[in-house]
Amino acid sequence: GESVGLHLPTLSVQEGDNSIINCAYSNSASDYFIWYKQESGKGPQFIIDIRSNMDKRQGQRVTVLLNKTVKHLSLQIAATQPGDSAVYFCAEIPYGGATNKLIFGTGTLLAVQP
Amino acid sequence: DAGVIQSPRHEVTEMGQEVTLRCKPISGHNSLFWYRQTMMRGLELLIYFNNNVPIDDSGMPEDRFSAKMPNASFSTLKIQPSEPRDSAVYFCASRTGTGLYGYTFGSGTRLTVV
């Protein structure tokens, strides 16, 4: 029979607008989070990370916000460009990093309209 | 730095054949991870090594899958016998063992079992 794949949430934005991609995590013991960008045909590429003792971290055009109370992570991309079109994954390391296991979320497809 | 190097980039094989995927981690990285990505299940951790020793293989789907890391610069993931449901993109990633730093992914091997 026909297989049913994951239906990635899709965020469509206009070039130049700001993008906000959200992620919910499940393990309250996780203390390290990473956002990855995956372009078609490539492996996930590190964007920015944040530890659980922080609630905000900024990089170049990107900001990650962490709300531990509701176990929510967001990635903000300023002045979105066509090159930002990709699938974005949040990932967490549970149990304080002792296990080294990086667990990925489902992913969000960002489509930038010119 | 050439990054994490995976080979082959693409592999097409017939059901029942043995498949071997290869990975060269970044020099100096002492943790290595094998992930599988499918539309159905997203990015799944199969197994990881610390200092060439397998630490957690709970993600390996079944006994047909095996992984080795004979030295710090090389790892293999073998599927024997292969089945059509093994078709996926297989990623290798590496990281340094100290601290909580981002993982670096290879470009992946796209496996198609017909």
Number of helix segments of chain A?
Answer: 0
Order of helices and strands of chain B: EEEEEEEEEEE
Strand content of chain B: over 45%
Distance between the termini of chain A: 38 Å
What would you note in describing this structure?
The complex is a heterodimer of chains A (114) and B (114). Chain A has strands spanning 10-14, 19-24, 32-38, 45-51, 56-58, 62-67, 72-77, 86-93, 103-104, 108-113. Chain A is mainly beta and 114 residues long. In chain A, the strands form two sheets. In chain A, strands 1, 3, 4, 8, 9 and 10 form a six-stranded mixed β-sheet that branches. Chain A has a four-stranded antiparallel β-sheet with strand order 2-7-6-5, with no helix packed on it. In chain A, strand 3 and strand 4 (45-51) form a beta hairpin. With 114 residues, chain B is an all-beta fold. In chain B, 0% of the residues lie in helices and 54% in strands. Chain B has no helices and eleven strands. Chain B has strands spanning 5-7, 10-13, 19-24, 31-38, 42-50, 53-56, 65-71, 74-79, 88-95, 104-105, 109-113. In chain B, strands 2, 4, 5, 6, 9, 10 and 11 form a seven-stranded mixed β-sheet that branches. The termini of chain B are far apart. The chains are: A mainly beta (114), B mainly beta (114). Chain A binds chain B through residues 3-6, 31-32, 34, 36, 41-46, 49, 51, 89, 93, 97, 99-107, and chain B through 4, 31, 33, 35, 38-43, 45, 48, 50, 55-56, 91, 93, 95, 97, 100-108.
